[in-house]
Amino acid sequence: MIRDITLGQYFPGNSWVHKLDPRIKIIATLLFIIELFIVDNFIGFGIAAVVLGAIICVSKVPISYILRGLKPIIIILIFTFALNMFMVDGRILWQWKFLKITAEGLELAVFMAIRLVLLLMGSSMLTLCTRPLALTDGIERLLSPFKKIGLPAHDIAMMMTIALRFIPTLLEEADKIMKAQQARGADFESGNLLKRAKSLIPILVPLFVSAFRIAQDLAMAMEARCYRGGENRTRMNEMKFAGRDYAAIVMMIVFGAIIIIESRML
Q1: What distance lies between CA 54 and its chain's CA centroid?
Q2: What is the rounded CA–CA span in Å between residue 142 and residue 163?
Q3: Section 164-171 average pLDDT
């Protein structure tokens, strides 16, 4: 299941989405997340799903690869679904002792599950279609106006990108630790949910040690290359808006307008 996490990974490609300016993709992702929380009906989610599906098709990222990233949150989805289904009062559809399923609770459970799935898939598309270095430059350029008030834009962008970049590395390290312990007789698959959760505790100590070692190696490598932050640094490729970026801006505005109008009409 650890290997199924796709957040933070980059899927190489040469599609229209891959070629977009990273600033446009970051803003589009943030707007998509905001619009998912504006939506208050299933029609809005349908529109968002169609738009996201079109982006996935254009990006040529395999849908199976994206859906694989949903496996690690299945437990969270089930928990959220059950919590909303059993805890919301309303017209009772089924009841057994203190447990009851209401029509309003079932509707809310489906609603929240769809929102969570779209939220994760939309966020994953940002890292799947953007190189880590381009993502760093995009975040820094978006935060650069705040330098006037003392915000360290380069440092923040670097930390965020390193955090995303090392998610796959730490997951791979966790997978190696699990395989090593399974070879020594550890059992992570049998037992109930609580027992399986407790069996993962011995993985945390070596994983933390490995994370600190990786962080130290990275710090030493940056120090050896005389890294001193973003001051007076230049870039090999300067970011410039192209025609496709302006087209993406127009599509973002149209999508946002449709979501707002649709939410107010119903």
Answers
A1: 18
A2: 18
A3: 76
